Amino acid sequence: MNLNNRQALIGLLIIVFAAIIILLFVFALCLIFAPIGARFMGHDLGAVTSLVMTGFGIGLTVLSGALMVITRLYTKTKASEAFVRTGMGGMKIIKDGGSIVIPVIHQIVKISLRTLRLDVGREGPDAVLAVTDDGAGMTGAADGTGMSIVRALVRDELGGTLELVDRGGLRAAVRFPA
């Protein structure tokens, strides 16, 4: 199974799980309000039946509500990252998994697990500083405001040039007079 099929299957499972939780919640509400509706329509279900239905309805409402909260607060890592969760319960490092993160109590710091390579060298009279990664590359960000600022700094402050090569990762090389 390739990555796209796996991601599609996971997305489908998440949608099915969410639908099951919502249906459980609706069923729970029906159990709570059915005895009231039956009594309003002139049908008496009896005290024990009404109590059992209402009790199960309240229990299912609490369960489905807890499941909804947990699924909203669960944060999972990507394959190319890890994160550190701090706050209540101490520091916890999460790699290849996930954790419940309550925004008011916890803070997460994402850490890239991609490989970075730093090359420093000379080519004739110039110094070359190059950084290479194995990520997805620039994907169109080479013409943005941030890159224009970086190019201007390299040109004006160092008197050099910036070269970007996007091939299965990104290589950014700054060439300037040494």
What is the count of distinct domains? 3
- In helices, the fraction of residues equals 40-55%
Provide the β-strand percentage band: 25-35%
Report strand order across the widest sheet.
6-7-9-8
- Specify the overall morphology: rod-shaped
- Uncertain stretches of 5 or more adjacent residues: none
Rg estimate, integer Å: 28 Å
For the terminal residues, how far apart are their CA atoms?
A: 51 Å
Tell me the total number of β-strands: 9
Quickly give the structural class. alpha+beta
Helix-strand string = HHEEEEEEEHEE
Q: Helix segment count?
A: 3
Q: What can be said about the biggest beta sheet?
A: 4 strands, antiparallel
On the 0 to 100 scale, the average pLDDT is 84
Description:
The chain is an alpha+beta fold and 178 residues long. It has three domains: 1-73; 77-113, no CATH class; 116-177, Histidine kinase-like ATPase, C-terminal domain (Heat Shock Protein 90, 2-Layer Sandwich). It has three helices and nine strands, in the order ααβββββββαββ. It has helices spanning 3-40, 47-73, 145-158, and strands spanning 74-76, 81-87, 92-95, 98-100, 106-112, 116-123, 126-133, 161-166, 170-177. The strands form three sheets. The protein has a four-stranded antiparallel sheet with strand order 6-7-9-8, with helices on one face. The longest helix is centred in the first third of the chain and has 38 residues, at 3-40. The two termini are 51 Å apart. The mean pLDDT is 84.
